[in-house]
Amino acid sequence: MRVGTVLVKLYLPVPCSLKDKRSIIKGLIAKVKREFNVSIAEVGALDDRRRAELGVALVSKDGELNERILAKVVELLEREPEVQVEDYQIEIL
After folding, report:
1. What average pLDDT does this structure show over 56-76?
2. What's the predicted TM-score (pTM) here?
């Protein structure tokens, strides 16, 4: 059994309220869950209106598969116009 995780740090370039940020992030989380069937949650920068941190986890028998899926999650987030991916870190355990 292999566990893959990725921590993605996002920047929201358009100034918005925390309520607007939560709406944007909630939509992104739903989209990622729907497309990749992974566990995902907002795990950091909860009170910062311009930043967000998402944690994504995946369990399978193949570490390479985990890495490919997590890389695709990051690619999806990079294509989103409402956020910019500042940094990400993939880990396979």
Report:
1. 96
2. 0.93
Q: Distances in Å between the alpha carbon of 1 and those of 22, 37, 69, 77?
A: 33, 17, 16, 26
Tell me, what CATH number does 77's domain have? Answer: 3.30.70.1120
Full domain range(s) for residue 35: 2-92
Average pLDDT over residues 27-49: 96
pLDDT tens digits, 17-27: 999 999 999 99
For 37: left if phi > 0, alpha if psi spans -120 to 50, otherwise beta; the answer is left
> Of 15, 40, 43, which is closest to residue 29 (Cα–Cα)?
40
Q: What is the predicted pLDDT for the residue at 15?
A: 75
C-alpha 69/C-alpha 18 separation (Å) is: 30
Instruction: Domain count for the chain, please give it.
Output: 1
